[in-house]
Design brief:
Helix content is 77%, strand content 1%. The chain has a two-stranded antiparallel ribbon. The protein has a domain of 199 residues: ABC transporter involved in vitamin B12 uptake, BtuC, CATH 1.10.3470.10. With 328 residues, the protein is mostly helical. Helix 3 crosses helix 13. It has 14 helices and two strands, in the order ααααααβαααααβααα.
Length: 328
């Protein structure tokens, strides 16, 4: 009984090792700087991580389903450009938002169709979505020649999306809906099944290609929502605004515990991962750590999270083999 409790504690520590390290950094910073953990500062951090968090929610579905989506950052940029240019042209803000959403959804569906048509695994998804990233990023640069676009945004629904706590509300609402679908529907169970073993899922009658297209469609749509929220917050668009978002989103997902090899994950834990990384980045800023060193740390966090994921799977497989040998 005691050995079982010790094993559970060890498994808990291994599964949450990266989060534990991040929270230790947060606690140390809170001790050094008393105002760091104030309500206003934490609320500000939540606003800042909401855009990345929305993107990370879509990325969670892709990773659970056994693939990557590197086009998300470019979708954020392109969506912002399309939306702001449409509003500046005097078109209704609702139509402008619709155009932005359709652009993100269209890119996501295209990614899904291309990858599914060749039965692509994570490697093929990596290359195809990287190619789409380059294409979407280039298209975003055309209308402005790579320059910042100031928005002539009137007071209204569009501007409301990026103000106050609204980005946080959108982020958390999306996360709750996606987590409910993942945990309580056949679609969510099939997603884990496909991510674990696509071939077996196909032989079991699961519509693998259609399902995989929907993962990328959701990822593209959520990236578009993130782009709209971002340009609403600053009432302008930058054709390179989403640069690096794909790696920040992956970092949030893997720190939250979603397996890089697919088959398991949790959207709420992605939220925790995104918020933890956001608070940690804020802590590093307060401690005077430069942005370049912070990028190095983020990269190391991703490497460590993948290493822990591999270690956890190896240990679990050994335990299962040991139990089979013992019961046999």
């Amino acid at each position: 009984m005691k050995s079982m409790s010790i094993r559970k504690i060890k498994n808990l520590i291994r599964s949450n090792f990266i989060l534990i390290v991040i929270f230790l950094i947060i606690i140390i910073t809170g001790i050094i700087e008393s105002n760091y953990l104030s309500f206003n500062n934490l609320l500000n951090v939540l606003r800042q991580v909401s855009v990345i968090g929305i993107v990370a929610c879509g990325m969670t579905y892709c990773l659970i389903g056994g693939a990557y989506d590197l086009s998300v950052g470019s979708i954020v940029s392109l969506t912002g450009v399309i939306t702001i240019l449409t509003i500046n042209a005097g078109v209704s803000e609702f139509i402008a938002i619709l155009y932005g959403l359709l652009a993100g959804l269209g890119i996501g569906i295209t990614n899904g169709i291309l990858i599914s048509s060749i039965n692509g695994r994570s490697g093929e998804a990596f290359i195809i979505t990287y190619g789409m990233q380059v294409v979407a990023a280039s298209i975003a640069l055309f209308p402005s020649n790579g320059l910042f676009i100031a928005g002539r945004v009137p007071e209204g629904f569009f501007k409301f999306l990026g103000q106050g706590v609204m980005p946080i509300v959108i982020f958390l609402s999306i996360a709750i809906i996606l987590q409910f679908i993942l945990s309580n529907t056949q679609y969510g169970r099939q997603m884990c099944f496909i991510g674990s073993n696509m071939d077996v899922a196909r032989l079991s009658g699961v519509r693998v290609k259609l399902n995989r297209v929907t993962y990328f469609a959701i990822s593209g749509l959520l990236s578009a929502i993130a782009g709209i929220v971002l340009c609403s917050r600053v009432t302008s668009s930058n054709p390179t605004a989403g640069t690096g978002f794909e790696m920040d989103a992956i970092a949030a997902v893997v720190v939250g515990g979603t397996s890089m090899s697919g088959g398991s994950g949790n959207v709420i834990r992605t939220v925790v991962g995104a918020v933890a990384i956001g608070i940690m980045s804020n802590a590093l800023n307060i401690l005077g750590i430069t942005a370049y060193h912070q990028q190095i740390l983020k990269g190391l966090l991703i490497i460590a999270a993948v290493a822990m994921d591999i270690l956890n799977k190896t240990i679990k497989n050994r335990e299962m083999e040991h139990e089979k040998a013992y019961t046999g």
